[in-house]
Amino acid sequence: MGSRSETPRDPVDEAMATVDRRGFLPRAQRRFAEQDRPLAIGGGQTSSQPSTVAAMLRLLQVPRDARVLDVGAGSGWTTALLARLVGPGGRVVGVERDPGIAAWGAANVARADVPWASLEPARRGVLGRPGETFDRVLVSAAAQALPTALVEQVAPGGRLVVPVRHTMLLVVRDADGAVRTSEHGSYSFVPLVEDPPDDAPG
Asked: Which of 5, 47, 48, 188 is catalytic?
C-alpha cells in the first residue's frame, strides 16, 4: 500500500503563523495586524508589511542553527521571526538605534519564548556588530548606498538582504570570500540612519 506524503510547509509561512504580529505593535495598531500594510510603531518607524517581510526572509534563505544579525530591528517582530527560522541551535541578535523602541522591542522578543534571540540598542555611529560575522544579515531600513560595514560582517557562504534606496539587494559572500550582488524588486522603507561616530569632528 502506498502512503500519501504531505508537502512540507514553507518555513517562512510557518514562522509567520507562529509569531503573532499583534504582540509587536502598539495597542492602537493591533486591530490592523492582519492587514498587509506597514504600521506605525512610533519614532517615525514602521512594522513592515507582512508580504514584504516574507519576501525578504525567503531571499535570505535562513538555515537552521544559523547566526543572524537583524539591523533596524524595531519592535522585534523580524528578530522573533528569524529566531523561529534558526531554531534553538541558532542565535539572533537584533540592533535598533532608537533607545526607547529598542527597550520595547527587547521586551517583545523576551515574551516571544525564543531565548536564543535578543534585541539591543545600536551604538552611535556603528552599523551592526563590527568585528563579528554572521551567516545571515537582514536590514529593515533603506540605505543610500550598499553599507560596506555590513557586507564585511557577512561570513563566507553567508547572505545579506538590504534595501538600497528603493531596490532590494541580495549580497552573497562565496566560500572563497568573493561578493556577488543582485537586485530583487522595488520596495519602500523608512531610511537607515547612519549616525556619525561619537568621536567624529563637528
From this structure: 48
